[in-house]
Structures are given as C-alpha cells and as structure tokens.
Specification:
Elements: H1 9-26, H2 30-34, E1 37-45, E2 54-55, H3 56-70, E3 75-84, E4 87-97, E5 111-122, E6 128-135, H4 137-143
Length: about 150
C-alpha cells in the first residue's frame, strides 16, 4: 500500500510564496519579487563562494535588476517544489537571451538554458529570510560564449 504525504498548511503557504516569486520573475516585477522577502535576509549565489554574499534587499535586488536588464526575455519553468523544514527547495529551469553585458560576461546575443536550484528559508511570519541559488556556472558561461 502506498501512503500519501500531505503538506501542512505552512508548507503549502510557503510553496505558494515560492511559486509567486517565480511568477513575478517571469513578469520582471522586481517590486513584487522583493515584497516576498525580508530585505535584511541573506542572499547567496552558491557558485560564487561558500557564504552568502549580501542581503536580499541590497545585493538580491541589484542582482535580479541586472539579470532582467541583461536578459529582457528571461523566463523560468518550475519543475519541482519540495518542503524541508523551514526551507522550500525549487528546481527551476531559467532561460533567456543576453542583450547587454552582465557580471563580466560580454554580450554576444546568445541564449542560455540552465537548471537552477533555489533554496528559500522562511521565518515564522512566512517571509523569505534567506535565499541560496545554485547552478552550473561553467555551463552558463559557455552557453553565453565565455
């Protein structure tokens, strides 16, 4: 007999918040994205180092603004959303066409398609208090002609 795991109301709320983030990202709505976070929370791009690099309200906002500016057709497909304690883990495909230099990568008008893992950690008020993002950075760079 197969048992079915049911999510708690908290898990469902947090999963919904995570999906809302990706919906806002698709619409390139920075303000809606940022409203889901504690601006003082940790922002961590995992391929760039072993520790968070800044706050969501500062570095996160600037990073996503830069991504949207350099990849104006940025889009995503959420493949899987999993609850794990106070974390929601999202497996997501991100894709877009570069139209401006970004993070030291010269614009060559190339397109990328890259699997990402977003790990959102939530506080007791169900605001995202930390985000860690992982991807194959070498593959990302190669797709953009580095």
């Amino acid at each position: 007999m197969k048992t079915t795991q049911t999510d708690s109301l908290t898990d469902l709320t947090r999963k919904g918040t995570s999906i809302e983030f990706f919906s806002a990202y698709q619409e390139r709505d920075i303000e809606r994205m940022m409203a889901l976070f504690d601006p003082a929370g940790e922002f961590w791009l995992m391929p760039l180092g072993p520790d968070p690099q800044g706050t969501i309200g500062d570095l996160g906002r600037n990073f996503w603004t830069g991504v949207i500016g350099a990849f104006p057709d940025i889009d995503n497909t959420v493949d899987k959303v999993t609850a794990d304690g106070d974390k929601i883990i999202c497996n997501v495909a991100l894709f877009g066409t570069q139209t401006a230099d970004f993070a030291g990568i010269t614009n060559k008008g190339l397109r990328f398609n890259s699997d990402h893992i977003f790990i959102f950690r939530f506080n007791e008020d169900d605001k995202i208090e930390a985000v860690a993002i992982d991807w194959d950075h070498t593959s990302f760079q190669q797709q953009l002609g580095v």
